[in-house]
Structures are given as structure tokens and as C-alpha cells.
Amino acid sequence: MEFTYQIPETMFRVPSARGEVVRFTYDTQTYDEKSEPLKKSAWVYLPYGYTMEKPYDILYLLHGGGENEDWWLKQFPETVTMIDNMIADGLCLPCIIVTPTFYRNGPTKEISEDVTEHFKYELRRDLIPAAEKVFSTYAGGNVSEENLIRTRAHRAFAGLSLGSMTTYRAALYSNFDLFAWYGPFSGCAGPKGSREAEVKRICEALAEGEKKGLDLKCMFCCNGDKDIAYAEHIDIMNRTEAVCPQLEKGKNYFFMTIPGGVHDMKAWQTDLYNVLPVFFRTK
Prior knowledge:
Distance between the termini: 14 Å
CATH superfamily: Alpha/Beta hydrolase fold, catalytic domain
């Protein structure tokens, strides 16, 4: 497929049909089950014409280290404009987009990678059931584990930087039965991680999924060739592609390298612009 390295200016024009961004609050006890539930918030993008009368695909979209749930839709509102125009122009399917945070009580200056692993609990036990009980997804309000697994083909996870690492660790490795679509933007192992270990975990997750009859619809990796996370990300995925039969380049796996792209929002918005037309398309 052909990648777009520069978002067309028309994507930032005043949309002919605007979606809505709403605040969503939910409880989580995955940090300390002995205490009272912690209230957390996420922003939710609802496409123009959203109605409870029909189901929508849903994308969980994460920020990077030191940021919060405001990043994608509030701190950079032009992201919403871009999505509105993409949907209006028929470039992607209308979908719900949830932007949570992996932090407990707000961002920290210390970029701890622990959140990339621990978020898997909140994601499965709290966030997904809460969001899909309220909003109209293919789960149909039935958030039993069995039904969430059954509807995984209509659920995606993506994230940038530390959120990219979380895409692997919290979604792919630990909740593959809940997601069929993945968008890691800028990184996998991180500067302190083991590339060999990540290759092994990717292979194991996809192999175990296949044994259970769970397929990978698409892993769409993105990175700029001047990004600080590029070298480890492309190396890990090249190694994985060579040894993982479940990963088929050009079919269910793509790696988009943005020429001159760095670790910034311009690149990540470009990543999202390329990923959305691929996600949720019938194979």
C-alpha cells in the first residue's frame, strides 16, 4: 500500500460535519484493590451523526510519557478536525475514539515504564467494560468477557512513544483476545529494554492467539527515520517479521517510515492519518 507522509491541508479545513468530544469518567481499583475505587477520566470522540441505534468500531488511543488524556483531542484539537474531515470525505469509517491515560494521579516527570505493563489490568477490567457499556459499540452494551472477546474485530489500540510501548505490552501481549487492530507509533522496547525479549513476546502473543482461533487483523507500525525510537522499533519488527509466520507484511502488517520524521505530534498525527483508513476494514 502507499503511505502518506504529509497530511493534505484540506484535512484541516472547517469540517462540513463535526463530531463531538465528551468527557467520560469511570472507576478503577486496579491500583489498590483494598481502597475505594479511583475516579479516572478519558475523552471520547463521537463521530458526526452518532446514535445509540447503531454500533460503532472503537479505537483506544494513548498519549506518551509525561502527558495525559488531554493530549490527542484537547491539547491538539486539530486532530479532531482531521478526523472529522477524514470521515466526511469517506477516507475512514466512522468510529468512536477513546483517549485515556495510563497514569494514576496525573503525569509525572519521571518517565517510568512500569505503566506500560500495569495498564493491562485497568484496560481489561475497568476501562473497556465501562466505556462499552455507555457508548454504542459492537459489544451492544454486553461487557461480559465472552462478548468482548467475540467482538474483538471491532476494537483497536494505538499509542505514541510510551503509549506505543503500552500498545505492545498492555494490549498485544496481555489482551490480544480483546483487540484485533494495533497501531504502535514510535517505539517498542524503549531505551532500556531488550529487543530479543520483545521479539519473543510478539511471536508468543500471535502464536497463542492463533491456537485460540484469534487472528491479527492488522499491526500498523509507524515511526520517523529521525525519531529517537526508530532504530530499536524497526529492528525489533524486522526481526519479528523474519521468524513470525502470523505476521505477513503487506497483508496484516505494515511499517511506515516517515522520511525525516521525528518524535513529535506532526509525525504522530500523520501516523493516525495513515492508520485510520486501514483499521476496521473487512478483510
